[in-house]
Amino acid sequence: MEKPGLELASTLHEIVSRTVDGREAAMNEALARIGERDAQVQAWIYIENAETLREAASTMPADLPLAGVPFAVKDVIDVAGMPTRCGSTAEPDVPRAFDASCVALLRRAGAVPVGKVVTAEYAFRRPGPTQNPRAPGHSPGGSSSGSAAAVAAGMIPFALGTQTGGSIIRPAAYCGVVGFKPSFGAVFRDGLRQTCESLDVIGWHTRSVADTRLLADVLLPYPRPDAGVATPPRTVAIVRGDPDNLLEKASERALAAAREAFERHGIRCVDVPFDRASEIAEIHATIMHYEFARSLSPVVQRCPDQVSASLLETVRKGFNIAAQDYLAQRHAQLYWRDRWAELIGDADLLVTPSTPGVAPQGLASTGTSAFNRIWSALGWPCLHLPMDTEDAGLPIGVQLVGRYESDHQLLSWATALHGMLLTGE
Region Disordered: what ranges (predicted)? Predict the structure, then answer.
């Protein structure tokens, strides 16, 4: 889908190292990429006035860490002056008065929100119109489809997304970009249209782990534990999944190639049968349905003809869950969140599939979150590392999972590990 010879938008690191004129040029190139590519990709649903954006980029103080960096925002997160439609006509097409907390923090650091990108309906199942820029005719994933696609198509250096089950990691895997889901609660959620109070997390898509770390310095509430030096882990646990979620050959090969690369660099790799996967997946399902039903009940009651049949069915199912069952699963969620050693042993981090396979054909489905939702239930930080493409040219990679609130450590390890995967040395 990309035109031959057309360059990608600059990375965060490239933009912040430029002069003031260079930062305005970064906004111009982002707007140019959007104009050239979005008719095909259909990632954007709202773009701010171009002159307003150029002025904002050029007048940012030069000493800010993200001065002049343009970015996209998933359309469940508020941006002042822009509507938040949540992928649904049930939401009014009116501008929001205030930024979400995460957007305000990025503005404070000098970044400039260009506009809003497509989400599945209320960040759930019904896909939007977005195409996969790396694999025409295949799903871009969801629900953060516009976020991953805008970055993968080179239209923007980073985009905010959200995850309840697998909505950051899966689009990252299908579109071939880096996707980061921080620990639960790490990024403030004020201004997010929440659907699941105990699961929703704000994260982001970029084209490199280095760019992801720059954003973590702005958005995470705790400082880096080191000086930013990337060191490899000593031991990684390889978790293939469970018998209920079989891997396709592409994901099998990616996991095997990652293991081979790590062991070649002296990293100890151990197989860990994650025998709690089904139990934790059930925890996720109960919490998600119960909370989703109550969050979306006002919309369903007022505008039942403006929401999808799958959303209506999920709300119905959620109201059939007994309160005592929901509370029992919430207690189980919190119990297991801090019990890393009991589940994983002495491994520094986990390496798992990001998805069962490559992006599925067609746009009717956003794919399965089978290899993401258990980590979302636990609230552990996750990162998708793109590796290569399989035989048909579809992106593939692996997922790294870290301990709760070990986000900076996970990103440090990811920097070292991604280098091993990309160089093949």
Answer: 125-146
